[in-house]
Structures are given as C-alpha cells and as structure tokens.
Specification:
Layout (H helix, E strand, L loop, with lengths): L7 E4 L4 H13 L4 E5 L19 E5 L5 H11 L3 E4 L6 H6 L2 H24 L2 H6 L1 E7 L24 H20 L3 E6 L2 E2 L8 H11 L3 E4 L5 E3 L1 E2 H14 L5 E4 L4 E3 H15 L12 E4 L14 H7 L7 H14 L1 H7 L2 H11 L6
Parallel strand pairs: 1-2, 1-4, 2-3, 4-5, 5-6, 6-11, 7-10, 8-13
Antiparallel strand pairs: 9-12
Helix pairs in contact: 1-8, 2-4, 4-6, 7-9, 7-11, 9-11
This protein binds nicotinamide-adenine-dinucleotide and 2'deoxy-thymidine-5'-diphospho-alpha-D-glucose.
2'deoxy-thymidine-5'-diphospho-alpha-D-glucose binds next to α7 and β8.
Length: 362
C-alpha cells in the first residue's frame, strides 16, 4: 500500500502523454503513482523503464472499464486524485475502426466515473475536500476553424468531426454531468497537438522523423495546409499539474502552445533538421521525399487554442518554443533507435500498410 494521503491514480500512463506525465510527476512531486494501463498497441512499458526500481511507481495492467479492478485499486491505495489519460487517440484509426473508440473513450470513461463516484461517496469529508478527477481531453471536440476565426476558447461550442473527436466530446459531457448531478469534483483539460519523446510513430511528427531518417516517402495529406497548434508534451504535463493543484472544480481549461504551423511547415522543418543532424549522401535533401497523398476524410482545417484562462487563473505558460522543442524531439528519436525498433512490431507495419495503401501520391 502506498502513502494514502499522497498517491494519485493515472490511467493510460504507459502511452505517450501519460508516460511523460508519470515521469515528470515523480521528478517534480515525488508522491506515488498507481499507473493503470491496458497496454493496447499504444501502451509501452519501455517508456517507464527508468522507473523499474522506483517503489513510488506501481504499474497495474488492466482496463479502465473493469469496475472491480479499479474499485479495488481505489480502496487499497486511496489516491487523492485520478488523472485520466487512457483513450484510443489516433484520428485515422477512428475512421478505419471506430468501435474501440466508443468502447474506451465513452464507455470506459463512464465506467471510471461510476467507480470514482462510488469511491468518493465512501471518503471522509476531509478526503472529499481534496479529491479530484481530472479528465484529459482534446481541442478536437471544438471542430475546425477557418483561417481568420478566433482561437478555441472554453466557451466555443462543441462540433466534433471525427469518430475520435466525437468519442472525446461524449466523454467530456459525461464528466461534466458527474459534477453537476453527483458532485464529483472534476476538472477537464482540452489540449492542442502534443509532440515530444515517446510518441507512437503513427502520428505526424514521429512518423515524419522516422521516415525522413530512413529515406522513405513523407505522406502529406491533402494540400498540406491544415494547421495545428503544437505543444511540447512536458508543457502539457506542467499544465495538468497546475490544473490539478489549483483549478476550479467543474471548470474546463484549454491548453495550447500558441504555435500554429501548417503541416507542410512542420514536415519541411523536420526534413531540414534531419539533413543537418543525420546527413545522408544516398538520401540527399529530405524535402524531395515529400509526397502529397489522398486527404483524411472530414479533415479539420485548423486548430488554435486561446489559452488565456489557464494563464490568467493559474499562471501557466508553455516553457518550450516550437523551434527548440522540435529539435529536441528529432534528437530524441535519433538517440533512441532501440525504443523505435521495439514499437515497430508486425501490428505497426500492418497499420501503416492499411492507412497508406490507398493514399497514393497525388
Ligand atoms: P496514446 O494513444 O499514446 O496512449 C493511450 C494510452 O491509454 C495507452 O497506453 C493505452 O494502452 C491506454 N489505454 C487505451 N485504452 C485503455 C483502456 N481501456 N484501459 C486502460 N488503458 C487504456 O495517447 P496520448 O497521445 O498519450 O493521449 C493521452 C490522452 O490525451 C488521450 O485521452 C487523448 O485524447 C488526450 N490528448 C492527446 C493529445 C495528443 O496530441 N496526443 C492532445 C490532447 C489530448
Ligand atoms: O489536437 C489534439 C489531437 O492531436 C489529439 O487529440 C489526438 O489524440 C492527436 O492524435 C492529434 O490529432 P491530429 O489528427 O491533429 O494528429 P496527427 O498527428 O494524426 O495529424 C496531424 C496533422 O497531420 C493532421 O492535419 C493530419 C496530418 N497528417 C497526419 C499523418 C499521420 C499527414 O498529413 N500525414 C500523416 O501521415
């Protein structure tokens, strides 16, 4: 059993953001983490290898929808908070097969809320005062912006366009309802695109880094002018810590890096960094690898976050600029070839085949 007063339960802590969160949490706060993760293709225990001998990290292999397991963990460890990252997270996969997204993001979150609610009801008044359920969500729930639209604020109406975004929107609504109906002390964060170490190479940035390094085609969807607002993953983690620490109950907080970039800008930046850090005579200029391919159905044109609320209320701001963060990220992937090889299993190659086979160069 961990120190009852201090521990937190993290779900999805073997994934990209969750593992960065666990690593930085243990560095910054020192209080124990119970890490519940079902280890889907995106979950990777190697992300947490540095914690193998750390008694403050308790890894539990299991599903957020397993009420008996989650209820048992809550009663055994009595964490002061649940930080909920576990989800299916890749938009393209949600288009090919939405079922898992509904199961984990909607039903899984519902189950977790039910279990948390039952646990909360058993807490003393003093414990209830400090208990928090923090739900990690996305800016994709707000839909798509035109070039001159103001950035997404916490008051922007929900308008999800992909099965992934719709499943996250549904989970956000459930979290909100558990605050208003049952008084569960919830907080929700809606963050823009993250990048950094340990991101599974199905997402734009790690895919482009690895393909550039290996001289493979760089598949840019549509005209490459879609815009995302990029945030270094450790900045997302520090924002979550701030919301957990001093966020107002029942509130939502938008988190973003004020780093809007078109996809083609991101890809050419990566090409140039690879040319500099891993020059190859055989490959030549990586920009020549860029290949425009068939667009993603329902592809949101632009995301941008208005992060004034979290800045004004909680004093949070990102520490990393895109230019330095992307350089660090490229360097990390080049220095962690073993991690890369371990995640590229047969299932990974099958996904790449499925997603890109019909997206022929245009
Ligand atoms: P990820 O796909 O890398 O990791 C998800 C983790 O959840 C994996 O470890 C997986 O094994 C685990 N998981 C999946 N289903 C589970 C289940 N039923 N029970 C227990 N564990 C399960 O995702 P990520 O990119 O790290 O995103 C984490 C969270 O942050 C998600 O909720 C996502 O919607 C949100 N988010 C992501 C981004 C981004 O840019 N990646 C931005 C904003 C918000
Ligand atoms: O905005 C936050 C969201 O960001 C998170 O909620 C999601 O979990 C996360 O996956 C991310 O979603 P995106 O769809 O924006 O990320 P992705 O990396 O898949 O794509 C980024 C952009 O790059 C998008 O416009 C599609 C484009 N793209 C992506 C891939 C994989 C390409 O052009 N080519 C590609 O091969």
């Amino acid at each position: 059993m961990t120190n009852k007063k201090d521990s937190i339960l993290v779900t999805g802590g073997a994934g990209f953001i969750g593992s960065n969160f666990v690593l930085t949490w243990l560095k910054e706060s020192g209080s124990p983490v119970i890490n519940l993760d079902s280890l889907t293709y995106a979950g990777n225990r190697n992300n947490l290898k540095s914690l193998d001998r750390d008694p403050r990290h308790i890894f539990v292999h299991g599903d957020i929808a397993d009420n008996a397991l989650v209820g048992g963990l809550l009663r055994e460890h009595r964490p002061k908070a649940i930080v909920h990252f576990a989800a299916e997270s890749h938009v393209d996969r949600s288009i090919v097969g939405p079922d898992a997204f509904i199961q984990t993001n909607v039903f899984g979150t519902f189950s977790l809320l039910q279990t948390a609610r039952a646990f909360y009801a058993e807490l003393s008044e003093e414990e209830q005062e400090t208990f928090r359920f923090l739900h990690v969500s996305t800016d994709e729930v707000y839909g798509s912006l035109g070039p001159d639209d103001p950035a997404f604020s916490e008051a922007t109406a929900y308008a999800p366009n992909s099965p992934y975004a719709a499943s996250k929107a549904a989970s956000d609504h459930l979290v909100r309802a558990y605050f208003h109906t049952y008084g569960l002390p919830v907080l929700t964060t809606n963050c823009s695109n993250n990048y950094g170490p340990y991101q599974f190479p199905e997402k734009l940035i790690p895919l482009m880094i690895l393909n550039s390094f290996e001289g493979k085609p760089l598949p840019v969807y549509g005209d490459g002018k879609n815009v995302r607002d990029w945030l270094f993953v450790e900045d997302h983690c520090s924002a979550i810590r701030a919301v957990l620490d001093r966020g107002r109950l029942g509130e939502t907080y938008n988190i973003g890096g004020s780093s809007e970039r078109t996809n083609i800008d991101v890809v050419t930046t990566i090409c140039d960094l690879l040319d500099e850090l891993a020059p190859s005579k055989t490959i030549g200029s990586r920009r020549n690898l860029i290949s425009y391919v068939k667009d993603r159905p329902g592809h949101d044109r632009r995301y941008a976050i208005d992060a004034r609320k979290i800045k004004q209320e909680l004093g949070w701001e990102p520490a990393e600029r895109f230019e330095s963060g992307i350089r660090k990220t490229v360097e990390w992937y080049l220095a962690h070839q073993e991690w890369v090889e371990n995640v590229r299993s047969g299932a990974y190659h099958r996904w790449i085949e499925t997603n890109y086979a019909e997206r022929v160069a245009q």
